[in-house]
């Protein structure tokens, strides 16, 4: 096991009607004037925004609003938010929505305190984010884990490429998590969220670091939960307990308590960024398309051991001691069945509009200003092309 | 799943030589003058105390010292520490050692800011602790989870009874966790620590709250790790990775990420307090003695379902569908084998010097000023007596 630090200071307010405590949470962390950032649509229609405002009013916290956060959030909206945050002198930024509204809020929150261009933290000009306005979250989607993570993923509109900024100060001060808010999600979003969190586990599980029994077991706990509760949430969208288990699991799958002390991969996530950017699929759908092909490549080049563990412990495959690679492959096949039959997500790039001739451009774009991707499998443009091609049809 | 809040803001500095960063951690959280509290003995002899002081010196942090924290820490030492903390105007309290030094440090830290008697937070005069000097920890024993918990257990010398204070402010600001420091522990302490953390999982696992799949799975992850790495640590005390997995597992087993959204029991812990107080055994040994008897009583009165889960998922027992109670009992038997043959802990109260005629006094003392114990099994003095008697020989 490697040395590590772990720090997850977010206050989680979890359960039915939790959004009524948004104002109390802002007050707890010293906020007086907040920028509310959200997508629009369902946050407004469902009355959630009004309930959040009511709770802020009750605590005497003033606010300004910025709607229009999009899936795969864009740099332009961040600049708009930074300008508004500065002009209105807010001391808190609250993201209301899923990972997109939250990541956009995070970028606004640290961008507002930074003299230069916030993109400096995305293109390598600056290192980790060191300073930020405090961030709060009202979560409406169990998926990205951004409610507890150090990350903020933004797409640069000037070239349409997705990058990630990172820093302990980007962990939200509080996260309001009401599973009821996720009961009305369309199946595609539920499924995409479930696969995103499964991928957060897999990016950590496939590691060469030896002697990581405990985090292996925690990751398996998360993955088993996603398989069970993801399926229930698809079959019974209104099932509060399925939604609640999935939501808390999404947080723990990505606050890194499961990933400390070990190398992590993240190659599939980086490859996926190109799919959602180029074809407009959800992040989770893009991951579902790529993951089995990545696994087959990884198994071939890095050995079957971890894939056999995955097959037996997660999908309950019987170990074939004479042919462990058959067991490993069976695990991947069962994952594909879960993706297709349970989550009903696409399984090929062509299904989302990609063509074989796009592959070189996907790989080029992925490595644009970012030379290193992956760890368990150290990706090169050639390897990325091979995996993209395998996932094409 | 029940509504909940979760808040674990401790900075964990984990790995080899981590104690060299004690000074940096105090500085990070704004400390200028610390009270160092420890037991003595190995903390001094091993050179750990000197290394901690050196790291404080390097950051210009001054300190005063208070040794003499005992296993099952006593109220007298807390009063002494409170007086010293006030006189020296320290702004940080650092516990160096296992759960005892840490809990004693926590009580000193909040007692120093409280005008009345710190015991008010133990006897029900006051509720949760709301204010405390910041607490830091240099952990030398994987066991109590106090490095991340909200608890501080102290024994009142005036009557020799153990009680627990609680509050979010008792979560340490930082915890220095170097698994190397645990490699020299005597087997009895290693085993006691391992069983204490196993018990932290079991107190949460045996719950009537329905639909808690995710925390069930997390608890199973912890328990499987304790069985594997606890055994390795007993057989190969110097095995760094066994110690490291066990240490991180001890923290996560008790920071409550595994226990949110569900009722928890804690009856065995309360019963155990009497054994360690009356007979001077370690807390973990007392828990090992009582747990199988508690389980048999609980199974008989609360149904076999959770005990069958425990048997099949933790000890790999084959399910007997015709006789589920046989499966449940087999799980308890395998736990007893683990306690006796792997951990080499005592299995009866008589082994630690107890006699059948002590039982009424144990039960009386347990309920002294504390009428409610247990949740999965709601204990009465009569039920406690029955379990004590079953564990006697």
Automatic annotation (TrEMBL), chains A, B:
Query: Record's CDD domains?
Result: BDH (cd08187)
Provide one Gene Ontology cellular component: cytosol
Keywords from UniProt, A to Z, are: Oxidoreductase
The reply to whether Phosphoprotein figures as a keyword in the UniProt entry is: no
Q: Name one GO molecular function term.
A: methylglyoxal reductase (NADPH) (acetol producing) activity
All copies of domain Alcohol dehydrogenase iron-type/glycerol dehydrogenase GldA, residue ranges: 9-179
**What would be one Pfam family of this protein?**
ADH_Fe_C
Q: Which residues form the Fe-containing alcohol dehydrogenase-like C-terminal domain?
A: 190-392
Gene3D superfamilies assigned to the protein according to its UniProt record, in alphabetical order: 3.40.50.1970, Dehydroquinate synthase-like - alpha domain
Full protein name: Iron-containing alcohol dehydrogenase
Q: Which organism is it from?
A: Wansuia hejianensis
């Amino acid at each position: 096991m490697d040395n590590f630090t772990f720090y997850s200071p977010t206050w989680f307010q979890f359960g039915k009607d939790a959004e009524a405590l948004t104002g109390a949470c802002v007050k707890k962390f010293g906020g007086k004037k907040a920028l509310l950032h959200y997508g629009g649509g369902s946050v407004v229609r469902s009355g959630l925004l009004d309930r959040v405002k009511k709770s802020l009013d009750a605590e005497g916290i003033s606010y300004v609003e910025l709607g229009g956060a999009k899936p795969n959030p864009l740099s332009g909206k961040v600049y708009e938010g930074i300008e508004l945050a500065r002009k209105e002198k807010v001391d808190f930024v609250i993201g209301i929505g899923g990972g997109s509204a939250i990541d956009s809020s995070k970028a606004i929150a640290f961008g507002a305190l930074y003299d230069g261009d916030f993109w400096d933290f995305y293109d390598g000009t600056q290192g980790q984010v060191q300073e930020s306005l405090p961030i709060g979250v009202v979560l409406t989607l169990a998926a990205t884990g951004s409610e507890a993570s150090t990350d903020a993923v933004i797409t640069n509109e000037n070239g349409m490429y997705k990058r990630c900024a990172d820093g302990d100060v980007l962990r939200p001060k509080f996260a309001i998590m009401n599973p009821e808010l996720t009961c009305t999600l369309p199946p595609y979003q539920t499924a995409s969220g479930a696969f995103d969190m499964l991928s957060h586990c897999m990016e950590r599980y496939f590691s060469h670091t030896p002697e990581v029994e405990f985090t292996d077991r925690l990751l398996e706990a998360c993955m088993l939960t996603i398989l069970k509760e993801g399926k229930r949430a698809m079959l019974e969208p209104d099932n509060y307990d399925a939604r609640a288990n999935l939501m808390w699991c999404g947080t723990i799958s990505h606050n890194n308590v499961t990933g400390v002390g070990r190398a992590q991969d993240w190659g599939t996530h980086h490859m996926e960024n190109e799919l959602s950017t180029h074809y407009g699929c959800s992040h989770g759908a893009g991951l579902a398309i790529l993951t089995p092909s990545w696994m087959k490549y990884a198994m071939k080049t890095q050995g079957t051991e971890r894939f056999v563990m995955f097959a037996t412990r997660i999908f309950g495959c019987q170990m074939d001691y004479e042919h462990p690679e058959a067991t490993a492959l069976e695990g991947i096949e069962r994952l594909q069945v879960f993706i297709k039959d349970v989550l009903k997500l696409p399984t090929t790039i062509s299904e989302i509009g990609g063509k074989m001739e796009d592959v070189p451009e996907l790989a080029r774009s992925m490595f644009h200003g970012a030379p290193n991707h992956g760890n368990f499998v150290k990706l090169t443009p050639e390897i990325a092309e091979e995996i993209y091609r395998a996932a094409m049809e």
